[in-house]
Each structure stands twice: as C-alpha cells, then as structure tokens.
Amino acid sequence: MGSALYEAGRTVHNKRIDGPFRRFKWAIMAITLTIYYATPWIRWDRGPYAPDQAVLVDLANRRFYMFDIEIWPHEFYFVAGLLIMAGIGLFLVTSAVGRAWCGYACPQTVWTDLFQHVDRFFDGDRNARARLDKAPWGVSKTTRRLAKWAVYLAIAFWTGGAWIMYFADAPTLTWDFWHGTANPVAYATVAVLTGTTFWLGGFMREQVCIYMCPWPRIQTAMLDEKSLIVTYKDWRGEQRGSLKKAAKNPDAYGDCIDCQLCVAVCPTGVDIREGQQIGCITCGLCIDACDRVMKETGRARGLIDYATLEQCDAERAGAPARPAWKALLRPRVFVYFGVWAAIGAGLLFALGTRTHTDLTVAPDRNPPFMLLKDGSVRNAYTLRLRNMEARPRDMVVALEGLPKGAVMWTDAVSLENAAQSQTVTVDANATKVLRVYVMLPPDVEADDEDDGLPFTFRLTAQDESDSAQTTFAMPEDD
C-alpha cells in the first residue's frame, strides 16, 4: 500500500571524462552532425533538366536523388532494400558489439551529448550543475538558465530547419522561409521538430532511452553470452574498498575502490557494477573512467571493459584475457554480415543493370475492339513512356508479333501516316502518356485459345529498350 508505480524522475549530471571512448564519441558526433546539417547544401551537376542538390527527396515530382543515383516511384524497392539493410545492420552491430548504435550514433544520443556539452559550458561540470539545480532561483540562476535554453532552442531550430532542406532546394527554401513565402508545411515541420528536439534532447534525455524507445528491449533480447558488451568484472573488483582499507588488508579487497567515477560519467546514470541494465547504452565512458583510476592506483586496466559473459566466466576460472576482436568471429555475426552484404550486392547489381527507359501498356476494355466498315479491326491502348534521364530523348514505339499489314498511329499522328513504328519525344525526367491505335487488315484470324493475338510493344531509345506484352482483341468467328 502506498508504493509508487513509477520510479521518481532524477536529473543525471554526468561528469566530463577523457579517454579513447570519449574521443570516439566526439568523432562520431562531429561526423553525424556534419553530415546532417551540411548534406542539403552540397551541389551536384545533373545537367539543365534536373535539380543540382546532391541529396533531395523531391515529393512534388516523386523523385529521390542521391548524387548520381535517381530513384523513381516504381523503383521503391531500392528504398525498401536500404531500409532492410539498415535493420539487418542493427542486428549485426548488436550481435557483435551490443548496443553500440545506442551509445554512439543514435540521434537521441548524439543530440543529448551535444546538449550536455552546452550544460557544461554554462553551468560547469557535474558538481557545479548539481549545486545550481538545488540553488534558489535568483538573477544569476535565471540568467544562466535563459541563456542555456536559448542555445537549446537555437540548436533545435537549426535541426528542424536542416530537415526540411532535404525536401526542396536548400538555398531557395531558405530564402522563401525567412521572407515568409515558404509553404505552410515547411513552417509546421520546423515548429514540430524544434519542439521535439528541444524537449527530448534538452530535458527528457536518458528517459527516452530507458522508457520511450523500443529498441533497447529488442536489443536486449538479441544479446547472449557471446555478445561483446561493457562488463564489470566483479570477481576482480569485489569486495570494494578505499585505498586506505586495501592498504591495511589487501587480501580482503578487490581492485574497485568504490570511487563512483564510473557512475558519475555515465550519461544515463547507470551503475555498471550492478550488471547489465536496460539503461546502459554501451558508450564505454565508464571504461575510460575506470581505466584512469586503475592507472592512478597502479592497477591493471580492464576492471570495466568490453567483454563477453562467456569470456568473463573463463577469466574468473583463471584463463588469460582474450582480445575483444576475437568475440566477433562467431557464426551469428557472419550470418548477419552475409545477409546484409548479399542484399547490398543485389541492390548494386540492380542499380548497375537498370535501364533509363520504361514502358507500360493498358488496353481499352470498353469496347475491346472496333470493327471498321472495310473489315479492318482497330484496338486502342494507353501507353506510358518513361524517360529516366536528365535530357529529352526521342523514343521509338514499334509493334512486334502481329501479322503483316499491322499499323499504328497516335492522337498526334493521322491515319494516313500510320506505320509499324512511331517516334515520340519524351521530356527529361518525365513520363509521357500516349494514346495509340493499332489496326489489322481484314481476314486476320484470332487464336482460339487466347481469344486474340498476343503481341509486344517495343520501346527503344538509343541503346536501351523496354517491352510490354499485351493482346490484340478480335471479334469472335460466327
């Protein structure tokens, strides 16, 4: 009775630390933020008929551009393949090095890390921030808070503004945005992303990782005793005791001096000495902290380290430490990598062998044919000619598989100019809808099984071609 259903919220003030893992986090943060903010401004020359933005999701024209790659709506399988690769890539990373994605490259982690550095700039390191939190509101505290929140808001606004640049020409949209002439959707999107970034990165932080995100639960279910994770080697560290206690009775105490530095540097406030927890994002900052303490106290590093539970049990029994990279050499990692690589190779093959010409045909169903007074039979078709190059092209539409005497014409070509093929100009990066009429001379009989004559429309543009099979409907024999 009276017990709380939820743990009371607490602010995590993590301490600044230096070390290999912290420097690696700095590098990943710099790379990911640079990619996110700078990519829309990279220019890429595709000629006069296509946009010159390197990466662009052109919703108006239903195109996706990424440098030399252009994805059309009917090629969405490329996007689906990339998403599948991303999912399998997460499985691969998790099976190899645990929650490394969460610790280094997850957007929530990157922006939270950035906001925590803003905290240190305005409020100082861990102890100073904790004291300021407890201090009464006054001129100094209010000024610091407002200044810090203003920087939060600027970062959040910049984040939302960068996102919309992926969906329109960045310089043009920036000009329109600041002059109040951009689409209302742009302003609404920036407002939503500014608010969510400000709140999730500035205030929610580790609560998103622990309570809101479903991925930790999924990753936890994927880990096993062979997964490489951040581990506290309790058989070596216990019993904990200060240096003075250990000096008086060295056989009674382990290497852990209970300095709490591993807890102080953790961005989610986890005590790794209590074992694996859902709040641990495997960032390795506790390893940097513990290694520094071990060096200062003259003890071997690795009390907290990347290791598998299987290797920890072996070390507990007296086996020598095993290099961490050897934990990657296991079947599950190779299977995930093989599947991931096979999908990637398949996408590259499809991308390299695809043509920039596409043809679809839809025959008229009502009426299926027209019987002319001279005994000729006419069918009508709707053709869609797709030119997927950034330049206009002349395309030849030809008939294949029909009896001699079959001719075709379009709405732009008279019956007098009917022939077995017609040349049509299709604009750059465009689809042209063509109304085509096909006529057979009298006395041509249909195939009894198919109730018509199967044939092919062949579309040719320079050295590329595409075809679409259809049927020429015929009247039934009396």
Q: How is this fold's topology laid out?
A:
Elements (H helix, E strand, L loop, with lengths): L19 H19 L16 E4 L4 E4 L2 E3 L4 H22 L2 H6 L1 H17 L2 H9 L4 H26 L5 H9 L5 H21 L1 H7 L2 H8 L6 E4 L1 H4 L5 H6 L12 H5 L19 H12 L7 E4 L1 H8 L14 H23 L3 E7 L6 E2 L5 E11 L5 E8 L6 E4 L10 E6 L3 E11 L11 E10 L2 E10 L5
Antiparallel strand pairs: 1-2, 2-3, 4-5, 6-8, 7-8, 8-12, 9-11, 9-13, 10-12, 13-14
Q: Note the gap between the termini.
A: 90 Å
Would you list the SSEs in sequence order as H and E?
Answer: HEEEHHHHHHHHHEHHHHEHHEEEEEEEEE
Strand % is 15-25%
The structure class reads alpha+beta
Spans with pLDDT under 50 lasting ≥5 residues?
none
Largest sheet: 5 strands, antiparallel
Mean pLDDT across the residues is 88
Based on Cα principal axes, name the global outline. Answer: elongated
Radius of gyration: 33 Å
- Please report the total strand number as a whole number: 14
- The number of helices is 16
> How much helicity do the residues have?
40-55%
Could you describe the 3D structure shown?
By secondary structure, the protein is an alpha+beta fold. It is 42% helix and 18% strand. The protein has helices at 20-38, 76-97, 100-105, 107-123, 126-134, 139-164, 170-178, 184-204, 206-212, 215-222, 234-237, 243-248, 261-265, 285-296, 309-316, 331-353; strands at residues 55-58, 63-66, 69-71, 229-232, 304-307, 357-363, 370-371, 377-387, 393-400, 407-410, 421-426, 430-440, 452-461, 464-473. Strands 6, 7, 8, 10 and 12 form a five-stranded antiparallel β-sheet that branches. A four-stranded antiparallel β-sheet has the order 11-9-13-14, with no helix packed on it. The chain has a three-stranded antiparallel β-sheet with strand order 1-2-3, with helices on one face. Strand 2 and strand 3 (69-71) form a beta hairpin. Helix 2 packs antiparallel against helix 16 and helix 6 (139-164) packs across helix 8. The model has no long low-confidence stretch (mean pLDDT 88).
